[in-house]
User: Fold these one by one.
Assistant:
Number 1:
Amino acid sequence: MLKLKQQLERLADFTGAAIAWLTVLMVVGTFVVVVLRYAFDLGWIAMQESITWMHAAVFMLGAAYTLKEDEHVRVDIFYRRLSDNGRAVVDLAGTAVFLLPMSIFLTFASWDYVATSWAIQEASREAGGLPYPFVPILKSLIPTTAMLLTLQGIANAIAAILTLTGRMPDEPRHSVPQGEVI
């Protein structure tokens, strides 16, 4: 089970690293749009749309990595005071009751929406916007995000089960390397 958890987390690490590079492209693209707009009085709708869509991709594809790193939004008034086993129970219950059903539902609920976009070769509604196949690609990120969250949820559930059974090796999470000051 530990190997499966590690393999699933490697996928989240890979998508997190890829998305980090996408943010660099967003910054460069935004800089280009600003320079074109204010220095040369030129507008480029497709470039502006691509930045918005990259932003959406960062949030959607980065969700599983964020969950893996335990950086998602959580009201942890009680959670932080719990023992490791208490946290594992909360994590396992939250994953089983909320995350996995929602992710699986989102995967299936979005399937026809995405398939229709591909079937009609959907393009941007804006004149000069992004052409086909960019809209269907972006819409395909909806079930992809749900599937990545499902896989990371399975990894989190495995970690909780290993913790509860006492078979989870000690893994330093969110520790500060020696010599660094926060």
Number 2:
Amino acid sequence: MRHRNTTKTLGRSRSARKALLRDLATSVIVYDGIQTTQGKAKAVKPVVEKLITKAKKGNLAARRQLLAFFTTEQPVNKLMDVIGPKYKDREGGYTRIVKMGPRKGDGAEVVKLELV
């Protein structure tokens, strides 16, 4: 039974969920936003917020922590060079979820997760 377990599983195993969140976070960083289902957007939003907070530090330790999370250097470079300095004076709330309506095929709620 799942009593009091609050992790959103998204119908996946732990490793598949971790890979999904990493790939969604990479897409949000590289393309400044994505369109996905509401559940996935709510799950990846805190991940992206924490990554941007790390990038705001701008030191070598933060860069290495980001490199350990991502599979390529492209999102790390963008976080450290563009996004981190952009939000230097902001205390949080770097992303926004905008509802786009139901998806035609299965009726799932589609949202846009974008950097503010």
